[in-house]
Amino acid sequence: MKVRSTTDEDLDVFVDTLHAAFGRFPETPVDGGGLWWSALEPDRGLLATTDDGRPVGTAAAHSFELTLPGTVLVPAAGVTAVGVLPTHRRQGVLSAMMRHQFTELRARGDFLAVLLCTEAPIYGRFGYGPATYKQRLTVPRDRAGFALPRAQVSAGGSIELLKRAECGELLEEVYDRYRRVQPGALSRPHRWWALGAGQPPITPAPRHIAVHRDAGGAPDGYASYSLDDSGTLKVDEAITTEDAVFTALARFLLGHDLVTRIVFKNLPLENPLRWQLADFRAAEPVEDDWLWVRLLDVPRALATRGWSADGELVLDVDDPFLGERHRYLLTVRDGRGECVPTDREPDLSLDVRDLGSIYLGGTTPGTLVRAGHIRAHHPDAAALADALFLTGRSPHCLHWF
Asked: CATH homologous superfamily for 298-389?
């Protein structure tokens, strides 16, 4: 079995192999684009083949920017399209592709990779840990009344209703402003919008777009939604950097006529909507993980993100998949971190996947100490780590890839 990089000529073989791995068939293109694999980068794909050249596995990576705590923007490899044919599973194909990909990513200078995990037990083996979380909120229309007077949550401005085909550039602009200040958010490169790749509202699939404009007429938020035959209004995403703007958009969506229920597909766990409703139990939440993080260069990763407290922490980090184990001294002063090798006794011992989980601030070290994942070497270690990794704004990712 061999693993090699792909070229433009491999696209059809790559797509067919990937779909066969999942027991699916490639969908028919929609008008104006919309095929998710049209955004794949040929020079970042991998094919696993048998010795006689038959393809049996695929993996790829997108070139994204990830927003870290401290609103630091860094390159991130968005790992995707990972699959192995049913005839060749449990024969080391996936492990070989992951090793090959990590080697390539390090050679490119990437210090972290991210992915959306199909099966949690699989990617923990390769050092990925869940780092951002989301909730799906379902609200019956007849229980969607707000408890707070409108004046207390008013953003001012106005809401304009557009069709998806009328506002592509506006959506791209508002999303880009949002992702630059939201920890855990990924960029949406212009080519994704131009190709209609991914999921709505990036694709040209029909959607209504509620655009919020400030008092001066500038767009500062939007919600993408559709209404199906059952009367369910499904909100793909509601994008804004302002709580009051989100509230205005939520009021608009929850007040829609001829609707039985409203489903917000992807909200942060700490979103205030449930607390704003007159009936707290009206909104039914379903929580799930979303973005998983894998650190490939621990010192660089810890030195790059922003920090909200000063202190020192010695981390003993084990990376079983790559056969590496190192001890680092993390020193934080005035929001900046320095991470260097050390021989000092550790405060915490942890797996690289657990470091990935706490890296963006979405999971506290103390939680993983209590879960038995992280070993604290003295009574104050967990509290110290919690204080250092604390972020002012919880990480959240909307982008599907």
From this structure: SCP2 sterol-binding domain (3.30.1050.10)
